[in-house]
Amino acid sequence: MSSNKPDRQIALLARKWQEGTITDQEKQQLDDWYASFDHTEETGLLAKSEAQVKERLYRNILNREHIRPSLLRIWLPRVAAVLLLGSSLFFLARIRPENRVLTTQRTPKSPAPILPGSNKALLTLADGSTISLDQHKDGLLAEDRNLAVSKKQGQLIYSSADPSAAAATDYHTISTPRGGQYQVDLPDGSRVWLNAASSIRFPLRFGREARQVQIKGEVYFEVAKQQHAGKKTPFIVESAGQQIEVLGTHFNVNAYENEPGTRTTLLEGSVRVKKTETGETALLRPGQQAVLAGSVQVHTADTENAVAWQKGYFAFNNETVESIMRTVARWYDVDVEISRQIRGRRFGGTISRFDQLSTLLGMMEKTGVIHFRIEGRRVIVMP
């Protein structure tokens, strides 16, 4: 395996090795990755303390990847691939069968571990009645205005032989709590993914001139193309202070009220972002992001980071501890208190969204510049 093998692939192979499901070919790939380190230091690695093992591992990675020493303040992506699984701080030593000197040292677990979020949402029907989606089995949930609403594997699906039977004033709302997420197939065939503490309100019958929805929080869209009488029907997304108009495209909107601005990131197609108050507009191309914070500003986007949540992992790129902990609070449904001395410090790295909170916090603590104390569902952040 070449030294530039993607880190998430290494993490996947490592997880398979840990679970005992790795094939001989995959095991060879993992061994090849291990062999890319300086073998003249392996014996020394095995004989030293945990702190020295980490220091030596960091130095090996720095030498190979030419990463600036200042980046030791964050947990490095390749180290994240080694430590991500949370099972052993000595993963490098353990992937060699002959290395049996070390014993695994685990981070002490909280008496009541804080688990990650899951598929949870509340559906509000046109008459105001509600259905808790996580408390119902797969299958038909409701028939409302001639539309069948079904649940299948954490996904809500709308279907109807005659969508025109619903009135344009009949709306459904799907909302996720903190610690929840959900996927929805809208009546027009568009697909949306709701992040934690988010919602979408939409009509059961979209108009012929435009398809319009309202959102809060963070939502990823894959908009289906639609036309009437030979004319394309635009899809309009309204959020706090802005309106987005699209025809058929993939994009992400982060419109949480406690974030410093509303961010619209385009992956495919084109969208027009308009500030509701002033009418100021910006046309986005794929790979661009519009940030509404006073005015509409367009930047080159880190699209992978923007949609990481929808793909099942956290991706932090030189983000402040305040920004990271807002994300943590929403997904793990915890309250956060940040010491003034640690505010403004920046971190980066990737990790699965489906690990326990202690795994994420433990990785951040390995930088040596931040520490955490958990009291019930309250996380205290300290230098």
Continuous helix count: 10
Helix content: 10-25%
**How many domains, as an integer?**
4
Characterize the biggest β-sheet.
19 strands, mixed
**Gyration radius, in Å:** 24 Å
**What is the molecular shape?**
globular
For the record, give the distance between the C-alpha atoms at the N and C termini, rounded to a whole number: 38 Å
Organism: Pedobacter yulinensis
Protein name: Anti-sigma factor
GO molecular function, one term: sigma factor antagonist activity
Keywords: Membrane, Transmembrane, Transmembrane helix
Walk me through the structure.
This is Anti-sigma factor. It comes from Pedobacter yulinensis. Residues 173-272 form the FecR protein domain. The structure is a single chain. By secondary structure, the chain is an alpha+beta fold. Helix content is 23%, strand content 35%. It has helices at 7-19, 24-35, 42-47, 50-65, 77-83, 91-94, 303-306, 308-311, 321-332, 357-365, and strands at 118-119, 122-124, 130-132, 139-144, 147-151, 155-159, 171-175, 180-185, 191-194, 199-203, 211-222, 227-228, 231-232, 235-239, 242-246, 250-255, 262-268, 271-275, 281-284, 288-293, 295-300, 313-320, 335-338, 346-352, 371-375, 378-382. Helix 1 packs parallel to helix 5 (77-83). The longest helix is centred in the first third of the chain and has 16 residues, at 50-65. 32% of the residues are buried.
Could you give the topology of this structure?
Elements: H1 7-19, H2 24-35, H3 42-47, H4 50-65, H5 77-83, H6 91-94, E1 118-119, E2 122-124, E3 130-132, E4 139-144, E5 147-151, E6 155-159, E7 171-175, E8 180-185, E9 191-194, E10 199-203, E11 211-222, E12 227-228, E13 231-232, E14 235-239, E15 242-246, E16 250-255, E17 262-268, E18 271-275, E19 281-284, E20 288-293, E21 295-300, H7 303-306, H8 308-311, E22 313-320, H9 321-332, E23 335-338, E24 346-352, H10 357-365, E25 371-375, E26 378-382
Helix pairs in contact: 1-2, 1-5
Transmembrane segments: 74-93
Domain FecR protein: 173-272
Pfam families: FecR (PF04773), FecR_C (PF16344)
